[in-house]
Amino acid sequence: MKILQVNDQISIKRSVDNGTGEQRKSVVNILQEVKKSGDKALHHFTLRFDGVSIERHRVTEVEIEKAFGEIDSEMIGIIEEAANHIEDFHRMQKRESWFKTLDNGTLLGQKMTPLDSVGVYVPGGTAAYPSSVLMNVLPAKVAGVKRIVMVSPPDQDGKIPAGVLVAAKVAGVEEIYKVGGAQAVGALAYGTESIKPVDKIVGPGNIYVALAKREVFGDVDIDMIAGPSEIVVLADETASPVEAAADLLSQAEHDENASAVVVTTSEELAGEISREVDRQLEDLPRRAIAAKSIEQFGAIYVVKELADAIEVVNQLAPEHLEILTVDPMDVMAKIRHAGAIFLGRFSSEPVGDYFAGPNHVLPTNGTARFSSPLNVDDFIKKSSIISYSKAALEQNYKKIAALARLEGLEAHARAVEVRFTKD
């Protein structure tokens, strides 16, 4: 890994993949065809892109029962336990409606209402992502969303991986469809004969899914357009180079564009981590991907003081931040920008990916400066409540009318004055 001395502003921002002109054109055409032809378009594009003819896109209870038979009971128990942790954590986020009354009879408040329906996209292809199901579905469930719809591309046998179906059942999903890509996003946004539209679409996907989500935004809400995964390890001389290197590679193996960075006060540790990354790469199954990630976007930054390291982290605003120092809690208090923060050597990043409870859908590419992990609030609308009494309006209507006229809006002024105009 590159070892660099920090002298100025640094960044791990990578260019956002906005797709090619041909990709964007293709996505628009797919969405228009789904809007026009519904299930017929879903059948056509599933055959074209996934290589399988699907007669009935909705997953049956028989298919779900079969999936449970393909997963051993110990793994089902692990998925259930992870789901419990995730649900318990998100229950702590839930907020209630509130109201405030004043002496003059005014009532003000905020009414919290869950979305009616949410669509969850779960990637397919060569991998299965049960954790993605749990992380996207359970906050919506806790928020009180009544209808949660899951879509995922079928494999060449016309199936969704058993682990994904088990996780969906454990999370309480009752509608699951074997459809992926931009066509699935179109079905969720616009509806077809068999899939009713939803109000919001969440979940990761490839560039075609990302472009489709951007295209339908406005007709429906979306969560975010996430970039490649990233980790920053903030370490002092007490950190284990073996453990730090392993944590770096846990993210580097995601994607060639993933970013794995160390910020440390120890030049000796920097060298040890660099050598250890090379050693651990040797027998890593996804070595080619991880090595490319480390080569392109990996770096070890050496700073003089811990305060400098903290400032560098705040510049980077990473998706994942591990703090491997003598007093991680003290350092954490000084961090302003990070999606998820992992404290100490026993809080390795995969703990948060799968099991601890906090959401693993996190802001990337420096957006932790202004955005948050996926959470219960993402599935709730807030309505303002205003109730003025006669006394309250009489006390204030002239001020309101004056403000309206300052803006040149005479009808606004008259709307409050008319209530006190004598016939």
UniProtKB/TrEMBL annotation:
- Reply yes or no: does the keyword Amino-acid biosynthesis apply: yes
Reactions performed catalytically: L-histidinol + 2 NAD(+) + H2O = L-histidine + 2 NADH + 3 H(+)
The residues that hold Zn(2+) are Q251, H254, D353, H412
Q: Could you cite one Gene Ontology molecular function of this protein?
A: histidinol dehydrogenase activity
Q: Fetch the CDD domains from UniProt.
A: Histidinol_dh
The alphabetical list of record keywords is: Amino-acid biosynthesis, Histidine biosynthesis, Metal-binding, NAD, Oxidoreductase, Zinc
Q: Does the keyword Ribosomal protein apply?
A: no
Residues involved in substrate binding: S229, Q251, H254, H320, D353, E407, H412
Q: Where does NAD(+) bind?
A: Y121, Q183, N206
What does this protein's record comment on cofactor binding?
Answer: Binds 1 zinc ion per subunit.
Instruction: Identify the enzyme class.
Output: oxidoreductase
- A Pfam family this protein belongs to? Histidinol_dh
Which Gene3D superfamilies does the record cross-reference, listed alphabetically?
1.20.5.1300, Nitrogenase molybdenum iron protein domain (3.40.50.1980)
Identify which cofactors the protein needs according to its UniProt entry: Zn(2+)
Pathway terms, separated by semicolons: Amino-acid biosynthesis; L-histidine biosynthesis; L-histidine from 5-phospho-alpha-D-ribose 1-diphosphate: step 9/9
Q: Which domain of life is it from?
A: Bacteria
Catalytic residue list:
E319, H320
InterPro entries reported in the protein's UniProt record: Ald_DH/histidinol_DH, Histidinol_DH_CS, Histidinol_DH_monofunct, Hstdl_DH
- Provide the function of this protein: Catalyzes the sequential NAD-dependent oxidations of L-histidinol to L-histidinaldehyde and then to L-histidine.
Q: Which family does it belong to?
A: Belongs to the histidinol dehydrogenase family.
Instruction: Enumerate the HAMAP family for this protein.
Output: HisD (MF_01024)
What's the protein called, per UniProt? Histidinol dehydrogenase
The species this protein belongs to is Rossellomorea pakistanensis
Starting at the broadest rank, the lineage of the source organism is: Bacteria, Bacillati, Bacillota, Bacilli, Bacillales
